[in-house]
Design a protein that fits this description.
Layout (H helix, E strand, L loop, with lengths): L1 H14 L13 E6 L4 H6 L2 H9 L3 E6 L3 H7 L4 H6 L5 H22 L4 E6 L10 H8 L6 E11 L2 E4 L11 E3 L6
Parallel strand pairs: 1-4, 1-6, 2-3, 3-4
Antiparallel strand pairs: 4-5
């Protein structure tokens, strides 16, 4: 558990800095990057990040999208046919599922104020369905406080890689990693 404790301390150091109001949504995003093997530990200790945020005088809201794919596909009228031919689902993933996710997150972002950090948990569950970068592009204009993305993967040379498995992308978010100053 020391890994997550140390990561939450690094997060606290960052979140304690004064929040600039004149930033674009992408610049209001914080990626808490952690080893994908620590997912269960992170979830068990998620309260550390909430506590750190509140101790620094900010509000906290959590948006967990882990089960979103299951919720979305269960709502489809012809879901049985997609189980038989999953390749037919690709178009819907990049349009309807992506919008379903964006809508869920926008609701939380809109209810949060300019002094609230919204934790986004479960982005690892998107692997193979949609790119995190696509999702963030759809919601970054809605971020008024901070969006804290819990990111199972790696960060190196301004490049994020989800689950260490996919080509990364460069994003303007602030990384909080185990390599960040403690």
């Amino acid at each position: 558990m020391a890994y997550i404790d140390d990561l939450s301390k690094r997060y606290r150091r960052y979140i304690a800095h004064p929040w600039k109001a004149n930033l674009a949504g992408a610049e209001r995003t914080v990626f808490v990057v952690y080893d994908k093997t620590k997912e269960r530990q992170l979830r068990a200790r998620m309260g550390l990040f909430e506590l750190a945020t509140k101790e620094c005088g900010h509000g906290w809201a959590l948006c967990d999208i882990t089960r979103s794919f299951g919720q979305w596909i269960a709502s489809l009228e012809y879901r049985e046919s997609y189980y038989e031919s999953p390749e037919d689902l690709q178009f819907l993933l990049n349009s309807e599922f992506l919008e379903f996710l964006a809508h869920q997150i926008r609701q939380v972002l809109r209810s949060a104020g300019t002094t609230t950090a919204v934790g986004l948990l479960g982005v690892g569950s998107l692997y193979g369905f949609v790119h995190v970068s696509q999702l963030l592009q759809r919601i970054d204009h809605e971020i008024s406080g901070r969006l804290v993305v819990f990111f199972p993967g790696t960060y190196a040379r301004n490049n994020y890689q989800l689950l260490d498995a996919r080509d990364g992308w460069n994003y303007l978010a602030v990384p909080v990693t185990m390599e960040s100053p403690s």
